[in-house]
């Protein structure tokens, strides 16, 4: 049995089998000279084993003995001209030598000789992806998987799912998951919707999730996608409908309505609820949204410590103080919050930075943690230290963050740090259309366009951004950038 398939061949003696295992162990450790010697010892047995010869040829190549590799492959082909394993070894050797076309031809021959075998298909996909043809690579994997009527667990499906996640390709992910007989439509829609939302494609996420609104988590994602795509009216209509009750309690729905700005729809639900700390929090948010910061502060201050909504109430209370330009009072309201959660520390850092105390803001975070580095990037950005902010964004794992904005910035900055400005622009530009209120991203896009010598596009986007950027630090940076390129700004 080889990879789950019966292969008819000669009897393998214990002596040859022992040396074969020794060779595989050495190969796994990267000791290719030792692996080749072990496989040579295994060939001393009387029978000719094509599996052994194919592995010996690969290890000869990896140890630098290319001529021996070619001779061994020739012997293997003569021994079994229809061996897919020999064709696979030949393809791997060609690829190592940089002979991509010859490698692909050998891998294709291996798939023809063993149609149901994943390994040569994976080799084709890897070779194509290495040359930048990721869509073709995914298409090869999909075609192979869709032709496999048994739909059994396979390395090809796992590779395709991983590739789709890395590339931020929700459609391919959904098709790959559909080939798993254990998955459900709801599972597939949720996974694909999450990826679409995280990749900055909220409208696609909403379409993918719409037909599977059964669980609360799916509904939450769908509402988030609707809001992110600008369809707040539809989200509000759902929350006030009979179907919307599946989202949660009356207060939970009212809180979400307030969060998306649908105050008029939230008020009837709030009036029908009894007094509670959470109700006070939501009512305070309503007053704050309507511009009555003093009344909102009075309500929010009454939420008792220990209540589930206490921390959120303190964050809203700080927002009330900021609305009245009382930065010190806002910081004091949060400094008394007993939980040092990340949202509290983020807001505190923003307040400290606004007061000019950057060191106090930076001390709130641990740069060893990814989520904390993301917060540090934002602190540096708001403080006008843009180079440090870019470095921190680039240090984040692009697809490890739950926040779509962080994913986009991390991907863009990682590419920009390697001088791949055009690729970074391709990541950042769709995001600025989806989230035009992310002004730091818009200014960074202008900078990258100038770096890529796309002067006209950069000038146009720079002037457009200048009309909406109200942060004095960011506005000054954009003005300097435009002036350095000889672009007149008002």
Which labels suit this protein?
single chain, 490 residues, mainly alpha, elongated
> The biggest beta sheet, please?
none
Instruction: Write down the overall geometry.
Output: elongated
Say how many strands there are. Answer: 0
Q: Please, what is the average pLDDT?
A: 86
Residues in helix, %: 55-70%
Name the quaternary structure. Answer: single chain
- Taking the alpha carbons of the first and last residues, their distance comes to 75 Å
Order of helices and strands: HHHHHHHHHHHHHHHHHHHHHHHHHHHHH
Gyration radius, in Å: 30 Å
Q: How many helices?
A: 29
Percent strand equals under 5%
Structural class: mainly alpha
Low-confidence segments, given as residue ranges, are: none
Walk me through what this model shows:
The chain has 490 residues and is mainly alpha-helical. 70% of the residues lie in helices and 0% in strands. It contains 29 helices and no strands. Helix 17 runs antiparallel to helix 18 (293-301). The protein is elongated. The termini are far apart. The mean pLDDT is 86.
């Amino acid at each position: 049995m080889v990879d789950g398939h019966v292969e008819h061949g000669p009897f393998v003696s214990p002596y040859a089998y022992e040396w074969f295992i020794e060779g595989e162990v050495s190969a796994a450790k990267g000791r290719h000279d030792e692996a080749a010697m072990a496989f040579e010892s295994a060939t001393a047995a009387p029978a000719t084993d094509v599996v052994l010869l194919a592995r010996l040829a690969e290890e000869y190549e990896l140890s630098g003995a290319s001529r021996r590799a070619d001779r061994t492959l020739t012997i293997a082909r003569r021994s079994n001209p229809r061996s897919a394993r020999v064709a696979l070894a030949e393809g791997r050797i060609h690829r190592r030598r940089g002979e991509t076309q010859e490698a692909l031809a050998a891998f294709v021959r291996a798939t023809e000789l063993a149609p149901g075998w994943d390994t040569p298909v994976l080799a084709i996909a890897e070779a194509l992806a290495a040359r930048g043809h990721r869509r073709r690579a995914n298409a090869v994997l999909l075609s192979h998987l869709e032709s496999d009527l048994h739909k059994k667990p396979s390395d090809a499906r796992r590779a395709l799912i991983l590739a789709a996640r890395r590339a931020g390709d929700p459609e391919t992910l959904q098709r790959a998951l559909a080939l798993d007989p254990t998955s459900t439509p709801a599972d597939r829609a949720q996974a694909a919707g999450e990826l679409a939302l995280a990749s900055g494609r909220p409208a696609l996420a909403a379409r993918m999730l719409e037909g599977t609104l059964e669980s609360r988590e799916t509904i939450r994602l769908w509402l988030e996608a609707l809001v992110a795509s600008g369809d707040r009216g539809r989200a509000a209509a759902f929350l006030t409908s009979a179907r919307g009750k599946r989202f949660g309690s009356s207060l939970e729905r009212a809180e979400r309505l307030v969060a998306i700005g649908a105050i008029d729809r939230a008020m009837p639900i709030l009036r029908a609820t009894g007094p509670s700390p959470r109700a006070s929090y939501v009512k305070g948010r309503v007053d704050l949204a309507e511009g009555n910061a003093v009344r909102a502060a009075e309500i929010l201050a009454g939420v008792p410590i220990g209540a589930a909504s206490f921390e959120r109430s303190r964050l809203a209370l700080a927002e009330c103080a900021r609305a009245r330009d009382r930065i010190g009072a806002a910081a004091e309201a949060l400094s008394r919050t007993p939980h040092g959660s990340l949202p509290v520390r983020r807001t505190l850092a923003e307040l400290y930075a606004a007061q000019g105390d950057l060191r106090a803001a930076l001390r709130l975070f641990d740069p060893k943690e990814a989520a904390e580095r993301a917060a540090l990037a934002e602190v540096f950005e708001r403080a006008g230290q843009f180079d440090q902010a870019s470095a921190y964004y680039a240090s984040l794992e692009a697809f490890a963050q739950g926040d779509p904005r962080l994913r986009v910035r991390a991907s863009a900055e990682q590419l920009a740090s390697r001088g791949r400005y055009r690729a970074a622009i391709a990541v950042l530009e769709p995001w600025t259309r989806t989230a035009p209120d992310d002004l730091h991203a818009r200014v960074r896009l202008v900078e990258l366009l100038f770096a890529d010598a796309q002067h006209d596009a950069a000038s146009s986007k720079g002037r457009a951004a200048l009309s909406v950027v109200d942060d004095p630090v960011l506005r000054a940076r954009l003005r300097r950038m435009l002036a350095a390129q000889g672009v007149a700004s008002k």
